[in-house]
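@channel sequence for tomorrow's demo:
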Amino acid sequence: MMKKHATLFLLLLLPIASPVAAQSYPAKPVRVIVPFPPGGPTDIVTRLMAPKMAAALGQQVVVENRAGAGGMIATEQVAKSAPDGYTIIMGTIGGMAVAMSLNPNRGYDTLRDFAPITQSVAVTSILVIHPSVPANNVRELLQLAKKAPGKLNYASSGNGTVTHLAGELLKLLGKVDIVHVPYKGGAPALTALVSGEVDMSYENSLIITPHIKSGRVKALAVTGYKRSALLPDLPTIAETLPGYSASGWYGLFAPAATPKPVIARLSAEAVKALQSPDVVDKLSSQGAEPVASTPEEFSAFIRSEISKWADLVKAARMRTD
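structure tokens (generated this afternoon):
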């Protein structure tokens, strides 16, 4: 009987435990995992937010880069981390949405293993080519590709990333054969393009704009459904290929079962960081749109993205090799 009463007493205490834990959170530094190398767009956004969040939380927010497999290695590691709010990840469209249909052997399930915190930004990519490629617009690029199937190639930041999706969608709608060359992140993919190692890429506006202005690469079009306020004279790919749209996004996630009060605290401070004037100015000046959604809004968005990109993976017969 005593054992039964003791068990009942512990069960009654459980609802109290979570708020108590949340009140003392954070009691040590918080790690934000970036699933790509330093210097890429995901890294840039995370490092803009980290100091603001650290000041509000009263603890260090340490940014840690773990590249590989289009972000899936780090994503799986975070999925298996303790659900205590001390290890979170800046997830991307590739690792969190596309991988659900493209990579059946991944070691995690986004909807089962993660608790969304906030969508940080939405980013439109830009179709850029090396200056040696004799094309001045999307139509000329497609004509070039049709004349020499399999000769042109494009760099991506990894299998299943938004840059991979953008390339495969162009191939599907444009009915061309362009070879995919995956890299371990946006920074090495950009290096390959600038050096002439690859012919073209779909680069994030956060890192490509200075290279466009310097003439080291040639911009042809933006991948979003509307023109960029940063480069208003640049057409959309959809103006040549109706129905084309491939935009990326980044957002914070914690392991599933992280206490809701901890998620709420992280979300509140992340949103404040994204809405601070200097962060908004910095992101906007580089073509990124701060979103700062609630956990509930972000969760609904994730579900819609998983469904949307599953259709492309099937239609384009996308593979990870």
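heads up for whoever presents: The chain has two domains: 30-122+247-315, 124-239.
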